[in-house]
Specification:
The protein has about 650 residues and is α+β, with helices and mostly antiparallel strands. It is built from 19 helices and 21 strands.
């Protein structure tokens, strides 16, 4: 890494130069850095807005899952079996599925080797269990904090390798070559210098950029993404990077004071659901009226444990996802608050009335007794302690929840080596949209590790030499940086003006997305929200906004990229609906003439899925003047006709790196 000063216009700024700039510090980003080091790429710099502040270090569940090929037991499994599971989820390219399956064991054992405590038996076998959308037993877990332990061990590896980390710097723009075909650098704000205005800007020159900043959870008000984690998909979209499957998200029940999925044991102990007015008055067990018996209601709550993501296929016959719709109705439509109360059983609950699946599970767990909190103490005391560590005592207070955005299955497009259409840019982790409609639980952690490895491998073998000298770099980026400095100067002069402030803009954006672009989607509401997003984005780009202080400059750039991301998601949703797309994945498409799943909920009649759209992906690209969307057929899984001598020859000659799509 080289550090010097650069003058743009009349402003002198720090300039950092490196071969590979890694933006973000989650498990995917750190894994990429570690592999780059092992491949001999020494000139690497990690830049992050808050080391340890991302999703990897701050998310989990009662038993956070890591998904990989089965590696123990008599059950048969293969790379191609796993690839087919990923591919069959719909709208996922087969060649990407094959890569994620083929490298799943390698990356899993890499984590084992560096100290992530995945459990094994006395014979050294890493026994698995089934997770959602998993026909085998490929899941494993290191406990509630699996991804946090991955983060900690990977950070240790990066620290031991002496890879520099520049903390407290948020990248606000990617810098591209004049032809717009590749990235060559980035512009960031030093958060410790925001009060100094333009002096807070920092320039990076890089042959390659790895974008590992997570999913754009900041576009939603109801979100289980960590507080302050926004994602940075929008800066890649602004630069011309293509995205795919932005329609596909995963939504589910989560606590809101401390953001955490309330899956697994939290539901299997059958807590009482209550809703109240905003001031806490008028408590009601609102689920009761929508279920024919308490046994049916209690079973639906129990099933939310491992049917946690909202799924329209689980609505009919009082299925578990009916709970999500009713929580949405209370919180979004009625403006009430919803809580899980572990102190009391649901009214008139008799555990003997549970349906067979739920009853047998609790019986085998020796948990057919007491109150929800007593059952939780018996089955998973760590689940109680986790909330206690964050100031919430489930023994004495109810837990506020909502249906929240949890994961973006879509995202920025990458090829077989995770390289964007914008050359030398590698989106990895949740920033990459490799997943399709339905993905097995825990497959996101595997995809992040595999993506980091693939990007590192390609960079080490193809992009290790610098192709742009400093003087050429300055000439290429001077205009881009000058435009952003001029805009920032204008914004800083607007302090105190009576215009839209950044907090108001953020709130409007997030509320709009939660109401129109989350798990309940109505075509008219989406169209209206899209127009509002277009107006907001135009307003932000014009600079006609109010900054209350210099610190708001970062808020401005965050809001701009979040607004563009929300605009891209809404345009993708509307394009999908206009093509006749129906309810699938983790969202319900409202249709007044559609299928009803409950006589008391006619407003939630829905359009069934059009299965033919599973064989296509929806691509999005922002050109600065237009939003381009196109449907592309999914690429099939490559056939198993690999002859060893041919593979050996292609590997030695580095022909495996030619192109990027199979």
């Amino acid at each position: 890494m080289k550090q010097e000063l650069i003058t743009i216009g009349e402003t002198q700024l720090p300039l950092y130069g490196c071969n590979t700039l890694i933006i973000g510090s989650g498990a995917a980003a750190l894994n990429c850095a570690s592999h780059l080091n092992s491949f001999g790429v020494d000139d690497v710099l990690i830049v992050t807005d808050h080391l340890g502040g991302g999703t990897s270090n701050n998310s989990g569940s009662d038993k956070q899952t890591y998904y990989k090929l089965s590696v123990f037991g008599e059950g048969l499994d293969s790379v191609y079996d796993m690839a087919r599971t990923l591919y069959d989820g719909g709208a996922m390219h087969g060649d990407i599925a094959l890569v994620e399956a083929a490298l799943s064991t390698q990356e899993f054992y890499h984590l084992v080797q560096i100290g992530v405590p995945f459990p094994h038996n006395e014979f050294g076998g890493y026994v698995g269990y089934k997770t959602d959308h998993d026909p085998k037993q490929r899941a494993t877990s290191a406990g509630p904090w699996t991804s946090q332990q991955m983060y900690e061990r990977l950070l240790d590896a990066v620290t031991k390798a002496r890879i520099p980390i520049l903390d407290g710097h948020e990248v606000v723009s990617l810098l591209t070559a004049t032809d717009g075909e590749r990235v060559i650098g980035a512009l960031a704000l030093d958060k410790s210098k925001l009060a100094q205005g333009l002096a807070a800007f920092v320039v990076f020159r890089a042959e390659n950029i790895v974008l590992g900043t997570g999913g754009p959870g900041g576009i939603y008000k109801a979100s289980v993404f960590p507080e302050g984690h926004l994602g940075s998909t929008g800066i890649a979209l602004e630069a011309g990077a293509r995205a795919t499957n932005l329609t596909e998200w995963q939504y589910g029940l989560a606590s809101t004071k401390f953001r955490w999925n309330v899956s697994g044991t939290y539901q299997q102990v059958i807590p009482r659901y209550i809703s109240t007015e905003q001031d806490g008055s008028d408590p009601q067990e609102f689920l009761n009226a929508y279920f024919p018996t308490m046994g049916k209601l209690a079973t639906a709550i129990f099933l939310k444990g491992y049917q946690w993501p909202f799924d329209p296929r689980k609505l009919v016959n009082h299925g578990s996802s009916l709970v999500d719709v009713l929580v949405y109705q209370e919180t979004v439509q009625k403006g009430r608050r919803v809580f899980l109360d572990f102190r009391y059983n649901p009214a008139a609950l008799d555990l003997a009335d549970l349906e067979e699946e739920a009853y047998e599970y609790l019986q085998k767990s020796h948990a057919l007794f007491g109150t929800p909190i007593e059952r939780l103490k018996h089955m998973n005391p760590m689940a109680i302690e986790l909330y206690r560590q964050h100031g919430i005592d489930l023994e004495t207070e109810p837990l506020e929840i909502a249906v929240c955005a949890q994961h973006n299955n879509g995202g920025l497009q990458g090829n077989l080596w995770w390289e964007s259409n914008l050359k030398h840019l590698f989106p990895i982790g949740e920033a990459n949209g490799s997943h399709g409609i339905y993905r097995p639980g825990g497959s996101a952690l595997n995809a992040g590790q595999v993506g980091g490895y693939r990007a590192a491998q390609f960079i080490a073998n193809v992009y290790q030499d610098d192709s742009l000298q400093r003087t050429d770099f300055v000439a290429e980026i001077a205009g881009q940086v000058q435009d952003l400095l001029a805009l920032s100067e204008k914004l800083l002069c607007s302090e105190g003006n009576i215009k839209v402030c950044m907090e108001e803009a953020r709130t409007a954006l997030q509320e709009r997305m939660t109401e129109a672009g989350a798990q309940i989607r109505d075509r008219k509401k989406v169209a209206t929200a899209l127009k509002e997003a277009e107006s907001q984005y135009a307003m932000l780009c014009s600079g006609e906004v109010c900054l209350q202080s210099g610190a708001n400059l970062l808020d401005y750039f965050q809001n701009r990229q979040l607004c563009l991301t929300s605009l891209a998601v809404l345009r993708s949703i509307l394009t999908y609906l206009e093509k006749g797309g129906g309810s699938r994945g983790s969202y319900l498409v409202i249709d007044t003439e559609g299928q009803e799943f409950h006589p008391a909920l006619p407003d939630f009649a829905f359009k069934p899925e059009d299965d033919s759209l599973r064989s296509q992906v929806l691509e999005y690209r922002f050109t600065g003047d237009a939003h381009e969307l196109s449907w592309q057929p999914v690429r099939p899984i490559p056939t198993d006709d690999f002859w060893f001598e041919h593979v050996w020859s292609a590997y030695v000659k580095k022909e495996i790196y030619d192109g990027g799509y199979y």
